[in-house]
Amino acid sequence: MQIIKDISAGGERPFYKSNHLTLEGVRVTEGESALKECTDIRCVKCLFEGKYPLWEVRGFEVRDCRFSAEARSALWYSENLKMKDTVIDAPKMFREMKNLELTNVQINDADEAFWHCEGIRIKDVTMNGGTYPFMSCKNIFVDGLETDSKYVFQYVSNAEIHHARITTKDALWEAKNVTVYDSYVNSEYLAWYSDNVKFVRCHIGGEQVLCYAKNLVLEDCTFDENAGLAFEYSDVRADIRGSVRSVKNPSSGLIVADSIGEVILDENIKQPANCKIEIRKAKDSAFGA
Q1: Same domain, 141 and 165
Q2: Which of 89, 206, 239, 279 sits between 20 and 30 A of 20, alpha carbons compared?
Q3: 249, pLDDT greater than 80
Q4: Which one of 59, 80, 101 terminates a domain?
Q5: Would you say residue 8 lies in a domain?
Q6: How far is C-alpha 249 from the chain's CA centre?
Q7: Quick one: 217 and 264 in the same domain?
Q8: What distance in Å separates the CA atoms of residue 99 and residue 240, rounded to the nearest whole number?
Q9: 97 plus 9 within the same structural domain
Q10: Is position 131 within any domain?
Q11: What total number of domains does the chain contain?
């Protein structure tokens, strides 16, 4: 493998169509498409400042690197990425990609990050700011994520999320086949129009949460005091520990909680309108042993 160390390179496509190349301590300055149409690339302790540095790359490792704010749209149309111990200040990262593995990555501008990607594995990633990260992605595994980005996980499918802290607006809108474990999710309009979304041992906050959902399941979850008007027009099975401020017009299923501040069932409820709403008795389990 060719090794290039401790240089600065800029302009148009300085490493175009490179194969089996390691960049170590390299500064990629202003310009475009530094590593385009490349295969088997390693970038270690590099600084990326030019636009679109890694497009159409097949098989690459990025470790202990930094992408400045100017390195926008840095990784698109690529596959088989391993990224570790890296800081990203640029927006619009990760577009139309397959097989991404990120560990200990800090994304400081998550605007439009992870669009239309397939096969994402995340471990201990922090994402700040921006809108619509993970738009229309599928086959996602998360273990450790903290984000305050808006509209996170919209239109995703086939996702498993563990140990996340998500403070956002409109998370999991139209999501399909998603399970969230041991996480804190505070989101207005959480999981609206979703199908087969499940929360296990999660704490949920936000106004008008979990509405218009099909096959919605909550197991051993708690609700924040601000979480009200929940489950409107949803097909739901919910085992809630503690209290819920208000439940409104669930369509079908079973909701069991220790206490419910207000149950609203009015003329706008949708058929079959047969959801059972129960207050848990001492030592009862919502769904049986």
Answers
A1: yes
A2: 89
A3: yes
A4: 80
A5: yes
A6: 29
A7: yes
A8: 36
A9: no
A10: yes
A11: 2
Q: Which domain holds residue 7?
A: 1-80
Residue 231's beta-bridge partner residues?
none
As a whole number, mean pLDDT of residues 192-217 equals 97
Say if CB 198 and CB 182 are below 8 A apart.
Answer: no
DSSP-derived secondary structure letter, 251: -
Note whether residue 19 is domain-resident.
yes
Q: Are residues 150 and 204 in the same domain?
A: yes
Q: Are residues 127 and 262 in the same domain?
A: yes
For residue 67 the two structure tokens come to 């992408």
Q: In the structure, what pLDDT confidence band is assigned to residue 289 with cuts at 50, 70 and 90? A: very low
pTM of the full predicted structure? 0.93
* Pick from 251, 245, 210, 252: nearest CA to 231: 210
Interval 4-45: pLDDT, tens: 999 999 899 999 999 999 999 999 998 899 999 999 999 999
Residue 110 and residue 135 in contact, taking contact as beta carbons nearer than 8 Å? no
Looking at the structure, tell me whether residues 112 and 198 fall in a common domain. Answer: yes
Nearest C-alpha neighbor of 81 from the set 40, 113, 53, 48: 40
Q: Which residue has the tokens 């800029």?
A: 10
Please identify which residue in the block is written with the tokens 């490179």: 18
* Domain assignment present for 232: yes
Final residue of a structural domain among 61, 80, 99: 80
Nearest to 229 by CA among 262, 191, 252: 262
Cis peptide before 133 (omega within 30 of 0): no
Q: Cβ atoms within 10 A of the Cβ of 162, count?
A: 17
Cα–Cα dist 20/49, whole Å: 22
* pLDDT, position 1: 82
Instruction: Please check whether residues 112 and 99 belong to one and the same domain.
Output: yes
For residue 284, the model assigns a pLDDT of: 56
DSSP 54-69: EES-EEEEEES-EE-T
Confidence of residue 185 (pLDDT cuts 50, 70, 90): very high
What CA–CA distance (Å, rounded) separates 113 from 92?
5
Calpha distance 215→192 (Å, rounded): 12
